[in-house]
Amino acid sequence: MTSVLFDVPGPRAVRRNRIIGVLTVLGLLGLAALVIWKLYTEDQFTARQWEPFVTPDLMVLLLKGLGWTALIAVMAIVPAVVIGVVFGVGKLSDHWFVRWPCWLFVEFFRAVPLLMLIIFFWALQGFPIGALTPLVLGLALYNGSVLAEVVRAGINAVPTGQSEAAYSIGLRKTQVMNIVLLPQAVKIMLPSIVSQCVVALKDTSLGFYVLAPGLTFAGRELWRTFNNYLAVAVVLAAIYIVLNLLLTYVAQVLQKRYVGENKLDLVGGIVQSQPTGGESQGVRP
User: Which alpha helices (H) appear in 170-214, and where do they start and end?
Assistant: First the structure.
């Protein structure tokens, strides 16, 4: 047997690969057993460590933190998407006085570490909502600059024939962008936009450093009281995983609906463009 990418291993190589695989699995199992034993000796699996997560008052504290995390994520993602669209389209402008400021804005906020950005806004003080505003500003600007590159790449990924056909029927560049390019680019950009929204949701945990309300702030109060770092970390990680899965599921539903509507619109356009009664009708712009 032959393969284009690699030589198929012979009997000795297969035996050697199996031995290496078994040794690797045994090593990982041994490492996991060592970690579990270390945690057990430090009483990390006792009922006292996990009791806060079945205590009603403390569960209410976590739920409040979850509510703040969801609110912060929405407050950051919505302006981030707007910033991404505005500056992503601006980077494609034919006018240098529009293109260059957009380029500088995007490259600057993409390059600055998010935590430094949040701490910078927090150090300015004077915000009306305390530590919440610096966190939202940092998340919106950083993720907006990343989404701007996603928007620019998505628009450039639309086949050039689409814009050429639109220009040929007399549409201006603004009309071509709004009517032709952006609607088609959304379908291309949607997976990347969803991924960035998940990143923004996870990055709300950085509010811990400026004492902004959220899950990590609630977790901080728990582990300072009960000294159960591992239990808090596991529970918070599980909550973030569930939130991200829900966000991904909602995005997949929206994507399927959006693609389905596009297909229906395409079929409708084709039906309208069919010649009837022996007369030839052109495609309506």
Answer: 173-175, 182-203
Place of tokens 């703040």: 68
pTM confidence score: 0.75
> Token pair 């990590």 is at which residue?
216
Q: For residues 70 and 141, give the distance between their C-alpha atoms in angstroms, rounded to a whole number.
A: 18
Do the Cβ atoms of 103 and 89 come closer than 8 Å?
no
- Cα 46 to Cα 31, 189, 218: the distances in Å are 21, 47, 21
Q: For 34-76, what is each residue's pLDDT tens digit?
A: 988 988 887 777 878 888 888 888 889 889 999 999 999 999 9
139: pLDDT strictly greater than 90: yes
- CATH fold of 47-268 reads MetI-like fold (1.10.3720)
CA 233 to chain centre: 21
